């Protein structure tokens, strides 16, 4: 009886974990959209106007989101961000930042950031240049 109960509990836990992973970590299935020369240049120099967010962005985001071909959507490349938003939703984008996704480490290289910080940074990077 104890063995059957243990197996049932383990089965439920595995099912719950796998369902959560599927909901929160939808992979981007298609090749990234090609950025224009203007979008690449914008991404190289863009930073939030808010000093606090700019500091976080410069230490935690630019190494991937300002370099074409790094695998991350470029800051200001709204078509690519919108594609990801359509696939994952706003909560999914935030979950990818918190848990890591496609080469991005958990917490997006910012262990001291809040969810509000991450959402503000995502909103900044999604904005069309």
Q: What portion of the residues fall into strands of 2 or more residues?
A: under 5%
- Helix percent band: 55-70%
Number of helices: 6
**Coarse structural class:** mainly alpha
Shape: globular
Main β-sheet description: none
The strand count comes to 0
Structure description:
The protein is mostly helical. 62% of the residues lie in helices and 0% in strands. The protein has 6 helices and no strands. The protein has helices spanning 2-24, 37-45, 51-60, 62-65, 78-99, 115-126. Residues 1-26 have low confidence and may be disordered.
Summarize the structure.
This protein is mostly helical and 129 residues long.
Fold topology:
Elements: H1 2-24, H2 37-45, H3 51-60, H4 62-65, H5 78-99, H6 115-126
Helix pairs in contact: 5-6
Describe this protein with a few key phrases.
129 residues; mainly alpha; 6 helices; 0% strand; disordered N terminus
């Amino acid at each position: 009886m104890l063995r059957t109960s243990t197996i049932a509990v383990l089965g439920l836990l595995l099912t719950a974990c796998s369902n959560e992973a599927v909901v929160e970590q939808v992979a981007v299935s298609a090749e990234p959209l090609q950025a224009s020369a203007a979008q690449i240049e914008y991404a190289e120099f863009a930073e939030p106007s808010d000093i606090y967010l700019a500091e976080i962005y410069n230490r935690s985001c630019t190494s991937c989101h300002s370099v074409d071909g790094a695998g991350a959507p470029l800051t200001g490349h709204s078509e690519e961000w919108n594609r990801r938003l359509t696939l994952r939703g706003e909560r999914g984008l935030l979950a990818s930042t918190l848990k890591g996704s496609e080469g991005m480490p958990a917490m997006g290289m910012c262990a001291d950031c809040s969810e509000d910080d991450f959402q503000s940074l995502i909103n900044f990077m999604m904005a069309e240049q």
